[in-house]
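Subject line: Sequence and fold of a protein, written as structure tokens
Area: Proteins and the way their chains fold up in space.
Start of record: The labelled sequence and token lines come straight after this line.
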Amino acid sequence: MTAAVRVEHVTKRFGDLVALDDVSLEVEEGGVLGVIGYSGAGKSTLVRLMNGLEQPTTGRVLVGDAEISALPERELRRVRRDIGMIFQQFNLFRARTVAGNVAYPLRVAGVSRTERDARVARVLDFVGLLDKAHAHPEQLSGGQKQRVGIARALATSPRLLLADEATSALDPETTADVLALLKRVNRELGITIVLITHEMEAVKAVAQQVVVMEAGRIVERGSLVDVFSAPATPAAARFVRSVLHDRPTGATLDRLRSAHRGRLVTVRVADRPGFTATVSDAFAKRRLSNELVFGGISELGDRSVGALTYALDGPGAAVDEALAELRGAGIAVEEEAAG
């Protein structure tokens, strides 16, 4: 698969601050990559390197065949026409109409008036705002402003779309609408998308591949299903838990311990035939009392992901044997440690 973006061993320093530390990744052409991490993880620095607004201290950044980390400004401006940007705060010109905002990058690029008008009408129709062409930003809702931002980003027919916290300023319902639009952009226009966010819900809705960043490094990467179904790092596990709500924590875990005898064990859902029977049989053959006390299962594409927490009561050795059998069958099991 051709790479739309390649980041090769990039380190970025701002004085004594190391914002990115030996980061390497590839974004497949036509795909959607979600880059997730808390504030300070290095996400925004990464996206600024991808559009040439920052240069790496060491390493290389390539968009298509162009090494943008080595281009002079004049050539960099040309490459940026293939890169669309969507921002958290919309960045619209208040004095310009919706159509004027969308047309602005086309004017800068020297596109003729006739072609400009045609493209503006086309992208505004695509985002569902053709009837707002002559309105000004203050007349729009937050969701409509972000749709204008998306239309403006699409106006130059980019191959790559960078969305930096594009839904962070929106309410949940509007966020869902904008994410659905981004999914259409990828599916219908074939545009590669890099979604920078701290919201795992946004990644779940749009991304195909996921990168988890922490302290300037990539700590986990994989397909959306793999990261959601079996997060391999504490950072990824925290994000997944914030969306799936499939494992008990804090006061809930304390309440379950006080209400149920035995050991609390969480079984990660394996989307395969016989999963439920395998779990039940491992408990039943050892005559363990088992009660399902917590859990959550979500559909992700065509896969089920989530976890189920059981209270297991019986001899300690029998519980250990059951858990070993499940692990031997390839089912992830974790005992909820005592608080």
Remarks:
- The chain is about 40% helix and 30% strand.
- The first helix runs from residue 43 to 50.
